Amino acid sequence: MSGQAVRLPALMKTARENGAAFLVLDTAPNADQTASLAARSADLVLIPCRASTFDLGAIETTLLLAKAAGKPAYVVLNAVPPRSGIGKEAAEGLTGRGAKVAPQQVTQRAAFTHSVIDGRTAQEFEPEGKAAAEIRQLYEWICGIVDMPIRGHDRKAA
């Protein structure tokens, strides 16, 4: 579903009434009305970020937004180069600045690039691949953070 900030409460209500077990609210990376309302409505704020100096600096506003909303926020490092220490360095730098960092990083993998060509996820493109495993691990960690059972959301469990 997509919608404007003023419609978010109604869209969320409709989603729940139609059986949605959880909602993912994806906003632009800025502190506007939509992002603020999404943060206040969230159980958890995830901040995807590449492990580069410019990207790491750009998430400060989002971290402050989540703090102002009183919501737990975690940075999810993504597109981390494989076999590189840059992800660990970025995580340490963020933690040193007081940010929480998800324990799972999303590595830069060909499966992510190939899957979006025709609108699939890494799990659909290569279900047993490393990219799918990383997303599955991240999802399971998220479920633990928000106290949501994993059941029913994984095709293997169904």
Brief overview:
α2 (about 35-40) packs across α4. This protein has two domains: about 5-110, P-loop containing nucleotide triphosphate hydrolases (Rossmann fold), CATH 3.40.50.300; about 110-158, no CATH class.
What can you tell me about this protein's structure?
Helix content is about 45%, strand content about 10%. It has eight helices and two strands, in the order ααβααβαααα. Strands 1-2 form a two-stranded parallel sheet. It has two domains: about 100 residues, Rossmann fold (3-Layer(aba) Sandwich), CATH 3.40.50.300; about 50 residues, no CATH class. The longest helix is centred in the last third of the chain and has 16 residues. The C terminus is likely disordered. Helix 2 crosses helix 4. By secondary structure, the chain is mostly helical.
List the defining traits of the structure above.
158 residues, Rossmann fold, mainly alpha
Structural class: mainly alpha
Question: What is the straight-line distance between the termini?
Answer: 24 Å
Q: Tell me the CATH topology of the largest domain.
A: Rossmann fold
User: So what's the CATH class of the largest domain?
Assistant: Alpha Beta
Assigned CATH superfamily of the largest domain: P-loop containing nucleotide triphosphate hydrolases
Series of secondary-structure elements, N-terminal to C-terminal: HHEHHEHHHH
Radius of gyration: 16 Å
Q: Strands of the biggest beta sheet: in what spatial order?
A: 1-2
Number of strands: 2
Average pLDDT figure: 87
The proportion of residues in beta strands is 5-15%
